[in-house]
Amino acid sequence: MSKLLKGIVLALVVTAMLAPVAGAKDTQRIDTKFRKLGLAGFAFLKVAQGARAVGMGDAFVSVADDVNAIYWNPAGLSHLDRPQFVFNYANWYMDTKFQSGAVAFKTPKGVVGIAVMTFDGGKIPERTISQPGGTGKNVAANAWTVDVAYAFKPTDKLGLGMRVRFVQETLYDEKRRSPIFDFGTHFYTGFRSSRVAMSLRNFGKDVTTASLGLYMPLYFTMAGAMEVVGKKGDPAYLTGSIEGSFAVDFEQRWQFGGELWLLNTLALRTGYKANHDAESYAFGAGLKGKFGKRQVTADVAYSKTVDLLQSPLRLSVGASF
Question: Which range has the worst mean pLDDT, 32-41, 92-101, 167-176?
Fold first, then answer.
């Protein structure tokens, strides 16, 4: 058991460290002195999905235990014991929108998840030097993804998961497509309810835009979580989580989150994102109730951004059956 876990940890860490180096060959890069800004393409992949996770300040990799795990740490899907689905909506910056949906179900060999995500950049009028008032055409700016994930438990404490993702992005008249991969682990330590987790997201081949070489927005996270008051299923319990993240195009980031459940019906969430360029603290709430044999959830989250940008609101609706 210990050898298996050590092997997984070593593989993820080495992959995260070597991916940027391997992608740098024969590619034009933006020269940045202090931060690695501007090195990654497919920027829409960086936007968090799911109101529950966002309400906790994105500190969700080690907490993920429902269908939303497909977006954060596919290993978290291994904890599902019955089918679940979720629909997410985010009113993003400058009148752009994100919509995503996922479903996951258990099989005799593990848990399978399927998800889609779309980004709508709205209508952007085309303007040129000779026609500053507009050409009458609109510039396309949209993207979508289709995901398939698989998770299983080699032991009762360890969950492993992988997601394969096909992405397409349209910028003006240029379309870029690529497959990318996510990997994750989720391990209960045996000390109270503490668990540790790791995820490697957006691992894939570099892309080129207007002759400029760009990395995939690779993101490696190490995280921990535990019920600091009570335990899951109690009338009231509080979960705390902390994460350290390493992005290919930014410095190290930290996320801190908390989730308080009352009467297994009402959830109150808060979080803080340290060393993030746009967002800082977040708040969220959720409701959970039973309708027959189905358990229905509804979540909302608000994340504060810098003054020049509107603070986005996210909504999620899901159910298990």
Answer: 32-41
d(CA 65, CA 152): 13
User: Which helix (DSSP H) or strand (DSSP E) does residue 72 occupy?
Assistant: helix 69-72
Distance CA 238, CA 293 (A): 26
The pLDDT tens digits of the residues spanning 284-309 come to 999 999 888 889 999 999 988 877 67
What is the distance between the alpha carbons of residues 111 and 314, in angstroms, rounded to a whole number? 26
Domain count, the chain: 1
- Within a domain: residue 70? yes
Do β-strands 110-120 and 266-274 pair in parallel, antiparallel, or remain unpaired? unpaired
Domain assignment present for residue 321? The answer is no
Strand partners, 236: 262
What is the mean predicted confidence (pLDDT) over 157-169? 93
Tokens representing residue 193 in the block:
């309810």
Nearest to 201 by CA among 153, 130, 145, 142: 145
Residue 262 is assigned to a structural domain of this protein = no
In whole angstroms, what is the distance from residue 252 CA to residue 36 CA? 11
Domain holding 247, by residue range, is 2-256
